[in-house]
């Protein structure tokens, strides 16, 4: 497998995220990048295409590739980013409080969400996300135990996705999301510092592995004043 273009993508994307490459900066030309990384032009083009696809650069015909200001992205709607990754990227002082970790049998609702049977075991993980001393996110996760056989308190307080990818060797691929605004429940009021808000933004996600197996259902409940949900979209013309 050719991973050279991925390494180049990761290096440039990392430099953009760390601010080492500033917004509106023009990247070196393809020829210059070919010489810098000692790879083929095709490898450079694959890396640049990936950078464009994920919103790091804009390629302008006849002018080159320019870095896009990524600091405007607060909570990516279409991306699959863990809370740990997001908080580190945004430089937030964040903390995770684990409220519940247990193996349960699914009710009809969870059976439908995870496409499993009533006798299947699932992990239920309830975590409170605290940012700058305020409890503003309630994350309720349900994992199909056949894909995630074990979980610990330490894993849940750190990063479950990091554990799944680096320890279990699974590849988390894509998700389907639904965003609604709902009345705050008793559970929301119990766990979150709502400060008078009686509504929460709810993001429901069905997360899949790279073999298209559904392994997780997540319900993330947010205090409405603390997050701006954004997306990066690139237009593609459909065939007529």
UniProtKB/TrEMBL annotation:
<dbReference type="GO" id="GO:0045892">
    <property type="term" value="P:negative regulation of DNA-templated transcription"/>
</dbReference>
<dbReference type="InterPro" id="IPR011663">
    <property type="entry name" value="UTRA"/>
</dbReference>
<dbReference type="GO" id="GO:0003677">
    <property type="term" value="F:DNA binding"/>
</dbReference>
<dbReference type="GO" id="GO:0003700">
    <property type="term" value="F:DNA-binding transcription factor activity"/>
</dbReference>
<dbReference type="Pfam" id="PF00392">
    <property type="entry name" value="GntR"/>
</dbReference>
<dbReference type="InterPro" id="IPR028978">
    <property type="entry name" value="Chorismate_lyase_/UTRA_dom_sf"/>
</dbReference>
<dbReference type="InterPro" id="IPR050679">
    <property type="entry name" value="Bact_HTH_transcr_reg"/>
</dbReference>
<protein>
    <recommendedName>
        <fullName>Trehalose operon repressor</fullName>
    </recommendedName>
</protein>
<keyword id="KW-0804">Transcription</keyword>
<feature type="domain" description="HTH gntR-type">
    <location>
        <begin position="2"/>
        <end position="70"/>
    </location>
</feature>
<keyword id="KW-0678">Repressor</keyword>
<keyword id="KW-0238">DNA-binding</keyword>
<dbReference type="Pfam" id="PF07702">
    <property type="entry name" value="UTRA"/>
</dbReference>
<dbReference type="InterPro" id="IPR000524">
    <property type="entry name" value="Tscrpt_reg_HTH_GntR"/>
</dbReference>
<dbReference type="InterPro" id="IPR036388">
    <property type="entry name" value="WH-like_DNA-bd_sf"/>
</dbReference>
<keyword id="KW-0805">Transcription regulation</keyword>
<dbReference type="InterPro" id="IPR012770">
    <property type="entry name" value="TreR"/>
</dbReference>
<dbReference type="InterPro" id="IPR036390">
    <property type="entry name" value="WH_DNA-bd_sf"/>
</dbReference>
